[in-house]
Structures are given as C-alpha cells and as structure tokens.
Amino acid sequence: MFYDMVKESAEYIRQKTERRPTIGVILGSGLGGLVDIMEEKTVIPYSDIPHFPQSRVAGHAGNFVIGRIGNAVVAAMQGRFHFYEGFAMKEVTYPIYVMKLLGIESLLVTNACGGINPSFAPGDLMLLTDYINMLGTNPLIGENDERFGVRFPDMSEAYSRKLIEKAESIADALHIPYKKGVYAIFPGPCYETAAEIRAYARLGADAIGMSTVPETIAANYLGMNVLGIACITNMATGIAKEKHTHEEVVRIANESSQKLCSWVKTIVENWNCD
C-alpha cells in the first residue's frame, strides 16, 4: 500500500517534467530562496501531488521544484514536514521515498537551528558530521518493504565523509567560513529549556533543531548519500541572552541565505566531480 502510494506520487511528478533529477535538496525555514538559483524550473505545489503531506509552517513555501543547477538536475523541497505538526514519521519522510523512486541518488538537507557550542554565533553555517535522535521514535519503525531497503540499515556514516570533504574544499575556495558539528533533534514545538540544553551539550551536541534527522535516516535507509548544512539562527536557551521567536529564526536564515546559496550552488555543480 505505502509503496503504491509513493509510486503514484512519483509518476505524477514525472508527468510534469522531462527532467530526471539525481540530487535532492530539502530547504529549511527561511532558506527557500535557494530555488531562485535553479534554472528551467518546474514548480509543483505539494497540494497537487497525490498523497503528499502539506506544510503548515511560516517560512515554508510548500513546493516541489525540479530544475537545473549547472549540469545537475535537482529536485528541491521548498518546505519540509515536522513531527511536531502532528505528522506521522512516515509522512515526515514521505518525500524522501518519492525522491528515491524518481531516481535520486544523493540528498542535501538544510535547516535553521540553535547553537549549543559556545564558539558558534547566529549566522554561522555548520556542516553536520553526525546526529543525536531524541525524538523517542524512528521513521523506519513498522513493517519493512525490501523494495526500499534492508530491515537494519547502517548509520555509521549518516553524513557522507566524502561529501563533507568536498563541501569543506569548496567553502575554503569561496572564502565562506563554516563550522562542523553534531546536530541533535528536539521534538518541539516549544523551544528547549536551559536544563535540556545543558543535557544535550553533555551528550555531545553542537546544535539543536526540530527537523533533518528523520529525513537523514530515511535517505540512508534508501541508499542515498547525504550532506547536511545547518544555519545557526540563534544560540540555544541558557546561552542566548534573549527569548526565542520563530520570526527571528527566519530573519537570520534569510540574512545567511545568500552565503548558503553560493555554497550549495557550487557544491551541487561539483557533486559528481572527484
């Protein structure tokens, strides 16, 4: 049943464009402007795609966009789905399954998140090196369909070391400063308490947010190579001196968007170059 739903969604998208993407990109809060650098775009509203969930968060446009960046054909999600919205885990990760049946082999995930590492500052960009899943659940729970992946997928390289090295090299060439670190997911939708942030810091988290990990897990399960880049939009509770607002998160993400766009554009253009 689930496989058939995913297949129907993928077939609908295929009918809308002759382009066949091999790279998927998920755009977080305030980062949807990356779509502007794509050429020869086909924009498909989520609401038009059979079985596709609908984004309900400010800063998320809700479009599936297929276009070209350099010679690479890319499928970009302009807005994602969150566990805190009430979506089931299979709904949160549904687009990743659709990407797989579209022929996508690699995934770049971006997000806006809070910094825990005291050396970070709002506006920093961070390459994800690993994750800590604190949701208390997992998108792979339930019956397994071998057509998608194995029952017990390996997560020892959740974020591709080869892609991280490529991203570092490109950032250095473009003179874009960046950080590296471990991303922890918090269920939300409230922001974390100071005590929770102290606990996450002791667990080894450098940044914290409410997304990205479910998609990372699903993509690895589906055999995709994953690269993650986070925009540090605020310092976490107990570190920051002001209270959190979603509007401020989106504002900082928008300010960092040009820097991130330049980085992502060059990464994608050189994705398959050794």
How is the biggest beta sheet arranged?
Answer: 5 strands, mixed, barrel
Helix amount: 25-40%
Overall morphology: globular
**Treating each run of at least 4 consecutive H or I residues as one helix, how many helices?**
7
Percent strand equals 15-25%
Given as residue ranges, the uncertain stretches (5+ residues, pLDDT < 50) are none
Strand order in space, largest sheet:
5-8-7-6-9
Oligomerization state: single chain
What is the total tally of β strands?
9
- Helix and strand content put the structural class at alpha/beta
What is the CA-CA span between the terminal residues? Answer: 40 Å
* N-to-C SSE string, H for helix and E for strand: HEEEEHHEEHEHEHEH
Radius of gyration, taken over Cα atoms and rounded to an integer in Å? 17 Å
Short characterization:
This protein is α/β, with parallel strands linked by helices and 274 residues long. Helix content is 31%, strand content 24%. A 5-stranded mixed barrel has the order 5-8-7-6-9.
